Each structure stands twice: as C-alpha cells, then as structure tokens.
Amino acid sequence: MQHRSTTSDARESILQSIRANLAASVPHDAIEHEIHHAAAQGRLAVPISSSGLSLVNLFKTSLEAVDGHCIVVCGELEVASTLGGILKRLQGTRLRARRIAISESAGLDDLLTRSGCEFDEVGVTPSASDVFRFDVGISRAQACIAETGTLLLDSSRERNRLVSLVPPVHIALVNASQIVGTLGEALSSLRQTEPVSAIVTLVTGPSRTADIELTLAIGVHGPQELYVIINEGE
User: Fold this and answer.
1) Nearest Cα residue to 160 out of 141, 133, 147, 145
2) Contact call for residues 200 and 151 (beta carbons, < 8 A)
C-alpha cells in the first residue's frame, strides 16, 4: 500500500508541475501567436511577383535565411569547379568529405572527376545499411520552391532520398529553369511529364529540431550542412 501511495503522490506532483507550467506559459503563448500572425500577414502581403527579385535570387535569399548555402553559376564547368571548392573546404574540417555518396543521376560521377578533389570512396546510391558511412551526399533536385527556399526531391525520377537525408552534408545541383514560385507550381510542373511519386521529399535548409529541452539543434535528424548549386547556363 505504501508503494502505491508513493506512486500516486509522485504522479500528482508531476501533474501539478505540468499544470503550473502550462498556466505560466499562457501570456507567452499569446505574444508568440501575435508575432507569428503578424509575420504570416507580412509574408502574404508581398506576392512573389512583387518582391522585385528573380526566382533564382528569391530562392537564394529564402534558402540562406534558413542557414543553407546557395551558389549561382553558369555552365557545367563552373558547377564542377564550385563543387570542388566546396568539397576541398569541407575536407579541411571535421566533416571530412572523404567518402562521397551520389545518386544515380547522369553526370554526377563525371562532375566529381572534374572537381579536382581526391576521395577515399565514392558510392552510387548506397544501401540503407551502407549510407551512414559517407560524409557527403550529392544529388539533383526535381524542383525548387523560391518562396521558402525548398528543394523537392521525387524518388521515382531519381533515387536520392537516402543520399540527401543521411550524410552530414547534402549538396544539391539544380538548373535555374527548375525554380518556381510555390509548392503548387512545383507539383504542377512535375505532373506535366509524369505522375508525381508517392514518396516526395521536401528539404528546407539543414536538419533542425527543438525537441530536446526546446533548444534548437542543427543536424540531429539529417544533414547539418546544405549546399545548393544553381546552374543558370543549362
């Protein structure tokens, strides 16, 4: 009986603590709601067409606002050179960039060869059990959403899901023509060629979470670095 009473007392103490903290958070919740509501109203008040930015520049601005890196180049030679510069810089950090996983998209292996970097290993669409060994994942994107800086990856067109989500660094290569304003436009553009896959991945910046004590952490559930190279000369 003593054990049951102790358990009951502990449960009631926990519930009281939860109730007290919920009550204390009410004023802060109201303030947060007002801030987010005002921010949302502000975003809606400026249509993409009135932003004064091209879709490429708007995507770059949106991506960098969520801690992503965006480099705009012209032509495949500049893509290879920029890719090499990113990888060489990463090789001098704790992220290493010595083991590279790539999707099976045509031309990625050639770009790596022309990047001028040396690697310990290059794997093409490694399996779920192997992909955790790699430092960097490189893929293409099937569409980009300018208003949020989001990549859309369609697994039916390219096996890029594991490559883009597991290694500590994800590098995505896109053509400027793939950048559209909104999610609806992105899905519509994909449907023009073939049905959209049942598995579509949306990537907005590096992985982030605040699940642990409400403290923002980067790279817990996915890549801690995201680079997007946009080719305006395709």
Assistant:
1) 141
2) no
